[in-house]
């Protein structure tokens, strides 16, 4: 028995010593393992981020065969889907410190060319990728970026925008080419994204503001008050006082009460009378809220004269989303008549503001009249009623025109449900596939309610799965718990699964500017690109944007 007791005691001692050794090993060697893992991660990170080292398999540019399998399928009702393929390759590394963008020519067999650049993140902490695309397709860089983001789940399933600043630049260039006499004063309310505003400011546009908040945002960019019009006929007194303090003098009015308010708060303002014109051709008829009828303009001008106010010109707005060139020529004729009334009363009118309403897309399904079709009649009316020799400064307030086509939004399918509905009352019910996405009418698609826009889904799918696939009657819903949150009532789509992606073109106007976070759903992430058509175009950015601000410079990848 003594021997057995001795054996048990020594066995227990050995077990205790072994356990102590395990503890000592963990204490001593765990930090070493952590350090080793950290070093390995750092080496891997450097190899994927540095332009001069090979990319890791996860972040390497997709091959041509991989890209060919991915296509953009345009699904509209009634036309069947159209497949678009492209072979623009890129590499995107999303990280806190910045992004490397590697551009490859479509015919270079995925070999990286000399046009590689690194850049910093934007102020909001998100990567701001700049792409340089080769070839004729203006959407190739955008499409490749969308596919890249989706493939590697860069947004963790969050919806996102791709904003092409080159599209904004093209719209601005077209405006100055076709309407050389008309200065664009961008309507901030349409899309107040800071990068977009910086880019427009760099192009030399003026700005149309409707509140102290918009005035502050524009003035903070260094815009001269002379290039701002406070184009809200119904102004809050404190906002008027802010405009006075900031030196913003040009502002609109359309009634006597507004004149009394201005006379008390800002008597030295330069006033522009807003007249009511025919807006029956427009989607959003603003005349129900603003504009002095032609029968009242003379009396209004007399009242302004009695108050000692300085009226310098006339403005009008044919309505948002105008669908007729005739609306502009008719409105210009009305404005000329009010000019004559002002001159009769002794005013010196020197400003004509022709407002907005210009279409921002070349898609005739979305815009029955296109921008270039409005121009001939508009220019003719200006030459007839306001010839150059009169010396009148002519401005406009384009919003949709400048930014509509620059934004594309992508959002995943988060749920699917089969429902049975009757197309019309009394008709037999049919099967409808309901798809739920994580942005809706409380977010970017508020445009379907407030701007009366019809949106058309694009589907990102493998080409072999899309070609010849049957189209199903479908409905697209937003993510919130409100039944009004329906994005598209009826559309023919191929069968989609949870995790597939839809995206929508021409989403730059009256979308993200009015979106909310109702039900806790976050606003989409923003990615900015400049789809230069060649390397020389990309290198000439500083020349294109002589007044480039630092924020816009970061978005365009230019070092100041």
**Number of helical stretches of at least 4 residues:** 17
Number of strands: 23
Q: CATH superfamily of the largest domain, please?
A: Lyase, Ornithine Decarboxylase, Chain A, domain 1
Q: Supply the helix-strand structural class.
A: alpha/beta
What is the CATH class name of the largest domain? Answer: Mainly Beta
What does this structure look like?
The protein has 560 residues and is an alpha/beta fold. The chain folds into two domains: 71-166 and 401-560, Beta Barrel (Lyase, Ornithine Decarboxylase, Chain A, domain 1), CATH 2.40.37; 232-396, Alpha-Beta Barrel (TIM Barrel), CATH 3.20.20.10. Helix content is 34%, strand content 21%. The chain has helices at residues 2-49, 64-69, 140-151, 165-178, 194-203, 212-219, 237-246, 256-265, 297-306, 326-345, 371-385, 400-403, 447-450, 463-466, 535-539, 541-544, 550-556; strands spanning 70-74, 82-84, 89-92, 99-104, 117-119, 160-164, 182-187, 206-209, 228-230, 250-253, 270-274, 282-284, 310-315, 320-322, 351-353, 393-396, 407-421, 430-437, 458-462, 472-477, 486-493, 501-504, 525-529. The strands form four sheets. Strands 1, 2, 6, 17, 18, 19, 20, 21, 22 and 23 form a ten-stranded mixed sheet that branches. Helix 8 links the parallel strand 10 (250-253) and strand 11. Helix 4 packs parallel to helix 5 (194-203), helix 9 (297-306) packs parallel to helix 10 and helix 10 (326-345) runs parallel beside helix 11. The longest helix has 48 residues, at 2-49. Residues 32-136 have low confidence and may be disordered.
